Amino acid sequence: MPTNLSQKQIWCCLGVVWVLWMSATGCRSITQRANWHPPEVIAPKSMHLLSGEKSPPWEKAYAEAVSRDKADQSSCVDYYYRAAVLAWPCVDYDLRNKTQLNVRAREVYHSSLIKMVERGQCFDRFDPQKGLVIQMQDGPHTVPVLVKGFPWRPLEIDRLVAVGSYETDDVTRQYRAKGLGVPLVAVHKQRPGIPFQRQQQTYSATLLLRPGDQPQDTFTLELVDSLRFGTTEIQGREVPIQRDLTAPIAYVLKDVDDHYIRSFVQPGSNSVNTGLFMIEPYQPGKIPLVFVHGLLSDRYTWANMANELRARPDLVAKYQVLGFEYSTGEPFLSGAAILRRHLTELRLNYDPEGCEPAMSEIVLVGHSMGGLVAKLQISACENQLWDTVSSLPFNQVVMSPKTRKNLGEAFFFEPVPSISRVIYMGTPHRGSPWARRPVGRLGSCLVEDSDETTRAHEQVIKANPGVFSKEFSRRIPTSIDLLRPESPLLLAMDKLPTNPCVPQHSIIGSWVPMVGAGMSDSVVPINSAIRKGAQSELIIHAKHTKLHHSDAGVCEIVRILRLHTQQCQEEQAPTTRSPSGEFELLPESGSGLN
């Protein structure tokens, strides 16, 4: 099937998105955007000012570096390095005495670091894996790169990018801190074949040029994982480093396209990325936190939430974040089946012996329709869903082995045992009136199944005349079809039993009343978002598309995750019998929240 959308499909789909967006958010007269600027590289002082003997040597070296840089000479890298080394004593003096007497030296030091990275990589003189090659009088020398932190091998850092010029309205805050060094975006290129890891990811890093801990030591470059460290130790002193935790997210968002539209209109297209993926390499001992997006959306909808969680060290220390992306046009039963399979494979790949406690404490967070996908991971289903679409038992229906396998995974399942908590955000447990309105029907008509899927559906309907329900016989129901409040499948799914050991939480938006449905977040009525038996329920004043961006929504997620951490620690604490014969908890050494 073609992977490119027709012009008609694009305009119709954009129309649907516009109507839903306007109804959900209203006209945004003012948009608050987060802005980044190119790194500040100072200009050298003019040559006549440098001719005097009182001009510091680092100033002269920096001017020579800039001059050679303009002439596109690779030797500029040597002079940038020399300028930073010569400026270090002045920088170090201010650090030791907490003064600002050498501001210009500090500016030259940081400017030289930035240009060393940029021009060093341009001239193949700087490799994050090997170091910086400097030409000395006795020949080339390599300045090593020491790596501090990072949950991956240094050899997997492909390149370093200075925080650039970009802007986004997908994050509400910028998390930065002043200090020594230059903030960078580390581009991590993963080895092929690593399960559930994208080929390329970005992370926050800080680069410093510093002397060794002993007087005879030469200078080295230090690359610090600034997500996990706010300081570094230099000759026995803890020195704050400059950090930008949000920049790697903005770096990715600047190149985001509209693939979520293609994912909706052409489910199953080879050009659409689907499945479970990590945003960092797997880290033993950390709880997997899985985010699931909703209809007409993608993994980038969680950018702000990821940004907020990264700014909380206790959550960074306890959780590893994963995303799940799926085609939102096809029935969410299919997406749920893929996630169920991938969660099982995740454990088989990284905890095959089943001895890692954190892999039994997975938390799912689903926004909108993603909440339904998450709920199906803790639900049990025998025949309840199948009986809504077929008058014959599953094993009596004639179909190909592949179709049987796909339908079996979608309609028959048990709770995933590794999931221990689920959070719903604006989830339409009992549907949304928008699905049956003209805009919803138009959106459903735009969904174009693949040729293979269409043929499989036609074959099973033809081979079993009169067996399937009207909802299933006409065509494979789209996700919008299943969100109609009267959908038999949705109604049956709402009654499925869930694992009673898994706490469920609801975050619900209250924004405007909907005709015939009461108060809503403008898309999902409150009475549809309520989950009976939820351990907690929070109604906040927010629109549907902003629930997971709002401060109240973020704070509730943080609260629940900290509660989850605490309860997991309590459950893992060793027990012993007290003199009375009852069990009592023994405190864990080194545990507890920061």
List the keywords.
594 residues, alpha/beta, Rossmann fold, 2 domains, seven-stranded mixed beta sheet, five-stranded mixed beta sheet, disordered C terminus
Overall description:
With 594 residues, the protein is of the alpha/beta class. It has two domains: 47-230 and 242-249, no CATH class; 256-449 and 477-569, Rossmann fold (3-Layer(aba) Sandwich), CATH 3.40.50.1820. 36% of the residues lie in helices and 20% in strands. The strands form eight sheets. Strands 15-17-16-18-19-20-23 form a seven-stranded mixed beta sheet, sandwiched between helices. Strands 5-11-10-9-6 form a five-stranded mixed beta sheet. The protein has a three-stranded antiparallel beta sheet with strand order 2-3-4. Helix 10 (332-350) crosses helix 11 (369-375). The radius of gyration is 28 Å and the shape is elongated. 42% of the residues are buried.
